[in-house]
Design a protein that fits this description.
4 copies of one chain form a homotetramer. The first copy, chain A, is α/β, with parallel strands linked by helices. Chain A has helices at 47-57, 72-83, 134-138, 155-168, 187-200, 208-214, 224-233, 273-286, 291-305, 318-331, and strands at 15-18, 22-27, 39-45, 62-68, 91-93, 101-109, 112-118, 142-146, 172-176, 203-207, 238-242, 248-252, 257-260, 337-339. Chain A contains 10 helices and 14 strands. In chain A, strands 5-4-1-8-9-10-11-12-13-14 form a 10-stranded mixed beta sheet, with helices on both faces. A 4-stranded mixed beta sheet of chain A has the order 3-2-6-7. Chain A starts with 14 loop residues before the first strand and ends with a strand. Chains in contact: A-B, A-D, B-C, C-D. The interface between A and B is medium-sized, with 28 and 28 residues. Strand 3 of chain A pairs antiparallel with strand 3 (39-45) of chain B, so a sheet runs across the interface.
């Protein structure tokens, strides 16, 4: 497993995340259309922000590159990060009136969730190459680029610069494709930037659909095996390809392959699982765990998240994940991670 | 009073409003900074939308020109208008991804309110001159232009076109200055457009500060008397100049002047009063009431609004205003509207 | 004629123009499609700039509000204005990379001219309300607004502010409609702003098509008589409505009407005539001439211009116009200006 | 030399160029400031367009990806390409009012040239990923990306897509850095995109300053040797680094290095040489010449260009270059290309 281990060593941070910090408004009176919901709870949100909170809850050391709005919501998210021991030295305020992205979630039923996003002039997309401090990059063992940061300039160039510097300094580069249709102008634009960053990555995380978007130019056949073979040749060490309710597959450059099955849980909502997965998986890698163990830990966190009202607020600590794993293992002898 | 009466006659609508429809999120756990509030109630908002609801609650017939977002919040506000018997035939959906404006209110104490607005690419500012249907204008007895609609093209040109057509068809033109700093690029821009519409108006409603903004080019002395004299010469029939907690002054072209004092109430928040005032005052004018009676009715509605959690949802009907007036008159012999 | 006289009195300038300064490139090898022309002469251009040069050649005192590019073409036009004794104290440089507008003229034959304009991010449209110096306005006897300045913000607001201040200080306001399709986004937008400025004007100059554009909202019948009657009621003192090769009609508020016939000339190109007309007509008004004399003088300048290669460079002085008038009067007893 | 040969084989084109097509206006009355020049000759311009013309004059088969304006200048450049036997099947017209870029050249003296560019809403920068036809890419032996195409979206993504497809189909990718400060928003943005394309290139052409811009993130020492070593490791086969009047250096991945000295000529202007160099050098590579021969041929074309009024119009054919080389070789025994 040495090849996948994220070794902090003398570095300050296990992981530096780059991308969107948002505010989620989740309805309290859910199980109906959003237009009819009257009361909402406010949470920190945004995929890389959730991952940062998740890893920090697991005692990982986390840094962040972001722009947040110069208003009360900017205060809220910065205060929240501080409370969660995430370093905020490289989270700065917007100066052009950009507003932090909002996500209003619609939970019609446990299996019918959708979101209404406010992403016009979003604060996170104003992250600038000037914000990308070379010394800060150097102080991390790994860098996670959220694909949403590539949707628009200048955040796009900030992310590309960060990735180039991360390569220069030998960080593990993680690309979480995190596709959101907002702000992109064409499918080709998506493929252009996803494929550039995917080629620079050591670890690629995404759904099957996200891999398809990334590979549109290359004439692949849309199977996980072909994707793995293509990206391993480009230098990617680990791919995790998610298939929603069917679970996920993981492919290591050395040839090992794993199937990860979903775990039993009483589901509340259809989102948030991916961020739990990523944070707990990456935690396992920082600990040098064997990959199957890290994958199982990730899948358990994902399962807990889709049973919770919030994404950030409900990120589990290690004890909570362990308890859950013990519980489901006691109910079934079957393993959730198997080599294929 | 005949000169000020808004006579519906054969027209379909007493009033057609033009401008922003928004969604308000008011904290349930108020009396603290917004960043610390965790739970919010969702209401229809936006000054002209609130006025429309207020007048409709008083049994006025109301039409509306607006653009709202093509999402669940657009559904919410349209459904709300329908429920309140406001005509929605000229409320259409945005096509360019514009989002309905949001207002998060911060109520630190009854006297310290502020707002955090989401107005980037706001739906209402995408109202286009093409949306301004000449026949619809002709079907109204009065047109209310909210000054916020002038902040940006193409809404700006839509409002100017509507005002020009309203003049052509002899509607009473009401200009509610409704200054919001968002979206404007300079003070001169504000004065240019405010003064153009003020010259076209029959009725001008605004705070002292809003009148000052409107008059910046003209070398006036900043007193209500000078403002009244200036705008009466330009053809304005009625000015209502508001002074916050001190009450307001009203000036009629025929020379009559009135002082309106604030009424006793247990205040919850510092906003919403102006929309109550406008809707109840305009209701009085549609009924052909004497101006002092209409002003008192307006002031009573304003008073009830600042004691309520919502702006739209809590717009009073006639009975509620009458009861409140009876109550305060029973407590004090002093009148709230006096000729000066 | 006293009502139309532009009386300089104690003022510094007979006329202050506001709007576009451009550079014209006219082919030397003309009478073929522009794509095939190989050699071009460079001239100062832009309708209000040409009018300024024309009036200055006639010894009028001229000021100007403009933004020009911060490059060699900005130098060229500023130097040219200085050479022609036009005041350049209120011509400033762009700071955002805007470029001075270019006009490449295509002269396929004397009767088939067209233009290829470079007006993206045009310098003149960056004129800002901050550039409109109240004292400078006060120092003019008349202000000429070119309609092109209304096509886009912030030039639009600069022009509206200038017109409002000109009204405040009692200047004669001249609105030269000067319609150019570039930069406008809709017909309604055109009508909105043209009609606002036309209402503020003392003198309206335009082609029949330009008047039609201005009057779209008002249900007029498209005849010059109806236009005159409508705008006289709004306060306009003089309308000059141009009909291309058929000549033009002039309407005075006191009821007098004149027909102006085209004068015989060997035509080179189909443009530039209007600017000659305006400058010489306005010159006549500054001199307190009877209107028919001023109109004849204008028509003569127009005639000389369409026989010349340049618009600015070939603006005639008084002697040249007088000589031409003597010549055509010696050839024909018929008058070119007749009361109708 | 086999490694550098651009082998057309069964392909339709030796070279497909991607990027800007412009129109140059060069003063006839030069050797003075541009503001004082009165007469201009119009030529096809733009670095990749000049290279295309140069290679086509040398009997190479050339294709082109471009957007040009939908006006007479768009006609001019398309007609010019057709006349020069350049394929125009993938040159399409802009639909959003973008205008073809203009370059007004200022030739104060043979050694003091500068340019005034019109690049706001430039036609070439509206090239879209949708314009990049996979089959067309496949039909070329080589693709030349001009760095200017990377300055702005959507041209930036079109160029990146073209480069990715060229890699897929095994074309020789040539990156001509061609730095123009217009349209770029920051130095970091430049480095981000230049370095991405440089990593994909087989052949890199640029001045020392252009290489410095490309390498800003990587801590190199600014010498040609270090650049060569860095980019060879990334896979670049040939670097040509230009040093203005001092000549240029060429570095081959196999370790060979050459110095190219400037050739004697009576210079007229300070630009255009680079495009002559590139077209003649690439011609040599399509012919499978030894690199020193191709470099000498390139340097000769460069020399002829700086002695000419136009860039495109004066691109030499093979006989003209041969004659010039014979002439200078007869004057001096010294060679112009030496191994170092």
């Amino acid at each position: 497993m040495s090849d996948l281990k994220i070794e902090r060593g003398q570095k300050t941070f296990d992981l530096i995340c780059l991308g969107r910090v948002a505010v989620d408004f989740n309805p309290v009176d859910y199980n109906k259309p959003l237009s009819e919901c009257t009361t909402f709870k406010k949470y920190l949100g945004g995929s890389p922000a959730n991952i940062a909170v998740g890893l920090s809850k697991l005692k990982g050391k986390v840094g962040f590159f972001a722009r947040v709005s110069d208003d009360q919501f900017g205060d809220f998210v910065t205060d929240y990060f501080k409370k969660e021991n995430i370093d905020t030295s490289h989270i700065s305020r917007c100066t052009g009136g950009e507003k932090i992205g909002l996500t209003f979630t619609e939970i019609k039923s446990p299996n019918e969730s959708s979101i209404l996003m406010y992403r016009n002039c979003a604060a996170d997309l104003s992250l600038s190459p000037d914000d990308i401090d070379e010394k800060y990059i150097e102080s991390g063992a790994a860098l996670l680029i959220s694909g949403t940061s590539l949707a628009k300039s200048p955040s796009r160039e900030a992310a590309l610069k960060a990735a180039e510097l991360a390569k220069k300094f030998g960080l593990t580069v993680i690309f979480d494709i995190d596709y959101r249709p907002y702000n992109w102008t064409s499918l080709d634009e998506i493929t252009v930037y996803y494929s550039i960053v995917a080629e620079m990555a050591d670890i690629l995380l995404g759904s099957r659909e996200e891999f398809d978007l990334t590979e549109r130019f290359f004439g692949l056949d849309g199977t996980d095996f072909t994707s793995a073979s293509y990206w391993h040749k480009k230098g990617v060490k680990l791919l995790v390809i998610k298939h929603g309710k069917e679970g996920s597959n993981a492919f290591v450059k050395d040839g090992k392959k794993y199937k990860v099955l979903p775990m039993p849980i009483k589901k509340l909502k259809g989102f948030g699982g991916g961020d739990g997965y990523a944070s707990a998986l990456l935690y396992g890698l920082t600990q040098g765990w064997e990959l199957p163990d890290a994958l199982e830990f990730g899948a358990a966190s994902a399962s807990l998240l889709i049973a919770s009202h919030a994404c950030s607020e409900d990120m589990p600590n290690e004890a909570k994940i362990r308890n859950y794993l013990n519980e489901i293992h006691s109910q079934s002898k079957e393993g959730y991670v198997t080599e294929i």
